[in-house]
Amino acid sequence: MSPRLLLRLHRIGLIAMAYFSIFYMLVNSAAFPIIAGKTRAAQEAFGHSVTVLGATFAWLLPLPVRPDTAAGYLQWRGYGFFAILFAAWGLFSACGAVRRDEDKGLVESWLSSGVSRLRLLATRSMFFAALSAEIVTVAGVAGWLGCVIAGTPADVAGLVGESAALWALTLACFGIGLLVAQLVGEFRAAASAGGAVLLLMFLLDSIGRSSVHRAPFTDISVFSLFNQSNSVAPGGSFDLVATILLFVIGAVATVVAAAAFVRRDVGSGLIRQRPRRATEVHEASANPLLRIPVMRGLWVRRIGALGWTVGMGVTAAAVVLLVNATATFFATTPSLSTYLRGLAGNVHTVLLALIWLSFAQALLAILSITTVSRWSSDDSSGVLEMQLAEPIPRWRVLAERTSELTVTVTVISFVAMAVILALAPDEGIAVDIGKLLVATALLIPFALTFAAVGALLAGWRPRVAVVVLSTIAAISYLVFELGPLFKWPAWADNLSVFQLYGTPLITPVFVGGLVAMLAIVVVGFGSAGVVLSRRDVAA
Amino acid sequence: MTSAIVMQGLTKDYGSGHGLFDLDLEVAEGEVFGFLGPNGAGKTTTIRLLMGVIHASAGSATIFGLDCDRDSVAVKRDVGYLPGELPQFGGMRGNEVVTYLGGMRGGIDTARVKELSERLELDLGRRFREYSRGNKQKLGLVLAFMHRPRLLILDEPTSGLDPLNQQTFQHLVGEAKDSGATVFLSSHVLSEVEETCSRVGIIRGGRLVSDMTMDKVHELRFHEVTLEFSGNVPDAAVRAAAGVEDVAVYGARLTCTVHGGFDGLLAAISGHAVVDMVSKEPSLETLFLSYYKQ
User: Fold this and answer.
1) Chain A with chain B: Cβ pairs closer than 8 A
2) HEC profile of A440-486
3) A198 within some domain
4) Rounded to two decimals, what is the model's pTM?
C-alpha cells in the first residue's frame, strides 16, 4: 500500500478540493473591497446588509460576525460553506476507501499480502488525515493571502484555530463514514446512510441556529461543534473543547469502525440479510415492468429514485418548518424587522421561494450529475455494450436514459411540491398553487439542462464527463452567486443555469431563461445522439 | 453453402501497431468456427467489430449479408452474444437481468431460459453481485443462447466454467450446430476449440496467421517420444530417420518428436533393446506454441 497508490486513489478529491479551496477562499477574501466598497462607511453599510442577508440564510450558514471586514466576510462565506463541503468530502472519501476499494479487490489484495486489517484502516485514516490537513492548510493560506490582497490581513492565530476546527470536522466525518461503510455492503448504501446521518446533524444545527427555540440534541451535531469556533472574524473565538470533541468523535468512530472491520467478512457489511429460501430459481423474472421501455430502467433504479424522492420530500418538509422558524426569528429580532417590511409580498412565501428553490435546484443539479456519472460508468463497465448487443439502436438507449431521468425528476419534484402544499397551511404559509406548480414544472428543464450537457460529454468522452459537468455546475453556481455581487452584466449572469431558472415563485417566469434551457436540452441531447452513434463503445 | 460472416480487409487501427489489420475471413452457415490467439491478439476487437460496438478503420464485415456497422440493429436480431467479461449488474437478480435484456430484444422464451439455467445449474434467484465468476459466465451463456439465435458470437465462453459445465457448454454448441446455427467463438484454450469447432483461425498481432479445418490441425500433430535403451543408443540412425526431429540423448534415454507415421523411427531402432517407450500426443496448446515459434 504505497503512498503513491493511496494518493492515486484520492486524486480526484484531492485535486478538486485543492483547486476549489484556493479559488473560493481567494475570491471571497481578495474581492472584498470590490464587493463591499473601499471606504469604511461603505464597508459598514455592506456589513449591515450582509447581517440581514445572513439571517435569511441562517438555516444554511452560521450568522455572520463582523462581515464589514474581509476576515469576517471570509469567516461567513468561506468557512461557513466549507463546513458542508469538507464534511461531505470526509464522509464520501471514507465510504469510497472502504466500499470502493473492496469492490475493486484492492482490500483483498492488500490483506493477502500480509497487512493486518487494523493496520490497513489505520494507514488509510492517517493518509487521509495528512491529506485533509494539507488541503485545510492550503485553504487557510489562500484565505490569508486574499485578506492581504484586500488590504486587511486576517489574524493568523485565528486562521490556524479555524483551520484546526475544519480539519477536526473533516476527520470526524471521515470517521463516521468509515463506521457507516462497515455496516452495509455497497458504496451507494454506505454513502446514502452516511449522507442521511450528516443531513440529520446539519438539520439539527440548522434548526438550532435559525429558531428562537434551541432544538434538542443540537450539541451532538458535528456542524454545531464546528460552528462554536469563528476565530477568523475579528472578535470571534476559537472553541478548543468543541474542536477536541470533534477529534474525539472522529477517533472513536474510527476505532469502532476498525473493530467492525475485524469482525466482518471482506466484501460484505456487518449487517447482512439472512439467507432466504433454499430452492433455486430457474425462471425468468415475471415482472412486466422489466419488459417495458423506460419502466425497466426506473424499476432497476427504484431504490435510488425512492431515496431521492424521500430525501427531497423530507427536505421540502424541513424547509417549510424552517421557513416558519426563520420568519419568527426575523420577527423577534429588532434589527431585522426593517428587512422584513422591505420584502415584497408575503414574507413566508418569499422565504419559501428563496430557501426551497435553492435547495431544489442544488439537489436536482446533483441528481443530474450522478445520473451522468452512471451513464459514463455504464459505458466503461460494459453495461452499454450488453444493451447494444440487443437489437436496439443507440439513439434509443439515449432516449430511454433521458426519459428515465425526466420521469424521475418529475416524480421527485412533484412529490416535494405535494409535501409543501400539505404542510404549508398548517405552518401559516400562503402558497400560490399556480406559481408553485410552474416553479416545480420548471425544475424539469433545469435538471435536464445539466443532463443534456452531461449526455453530450458522456457520449463524447465518458471518462471525463463527470469532472467536466461538475466543474460546469460549480462555475454556474459561482456565476449565480458572484454575478450580483460584482454587478456583472445580464448576459454574464445568464451564463449560469441557476440564473436561467429564475425565481418563479416570486417573479414572473423568466421566458428567455426557459427558452435557453430548452435549447440546451434539445441541442445537447441531439448532439449526444450523434456523438454516441459515431463513437466506439467502451474504447 | 452461404456465408454467415464475411470480413473483408477488416481493420481497426489503435495506433502503435495495436488493433486488427486486413482481416479476410468467411464463416459458413452452420459452421462452428474457433478464433484462436493469445491475449491481446485482436480476438475481442474482431468480435466487437462484428457486434457493431466499435467502428472499423477500414474494410467491412457482414453477417447474413447485412453490414455489421450500418445494419447493426438488424444484425443483432439474429445474434446471441457473450462478451469477454460480463458487466456488473449489481443488485439485480439473475432472472431480472434475463428479463431486462430479453425485454430489450422484444420477447423471452421462458421455457428455453428454464431449460438453460437448469442444465447449467444456475440459480437465477440470486443477485448478480453474489454470483461467482463461473456463475456470471453461466448467466452470460443463458443470455446468449436463450433466444435460439442463428449466429452465436462467444468471446472466451468457457472462461471460469468448471469441467462439468464446460461439457454442458459443448453440448449446447453441438445442439446449436445441429439446429443449423453458426457459432463463432474465440479462445486461447485450444482444447475447448478442439472439442467444439470444425474450423479454426489463428490470429496474432492483429493479423490472421492461419485459417484451417480441424482435420488439417490434426494433420499437423506430432508425437513426443521417449525411448530408453538397455545397450547403445542409436542416435545417429534416429536422427536420420524420416519424420523424426528434435532428437536429444540423456544417457540411455532418447527423446524426439515424430511427425506423420512411426515407420522411420521403428526402422531406426530395430535391433536395439528398448526397455521403455512412451509416446505422448501433444496438446493443441503445444501445437499452437510451435506454430507461433515459426
Assistant:
1) 116
2) HHHHHHHHHHHHHHHHHHHHHCHHHHHHHHHHHHHHHHHHHHHHHHH
3) yes
4) 0.77
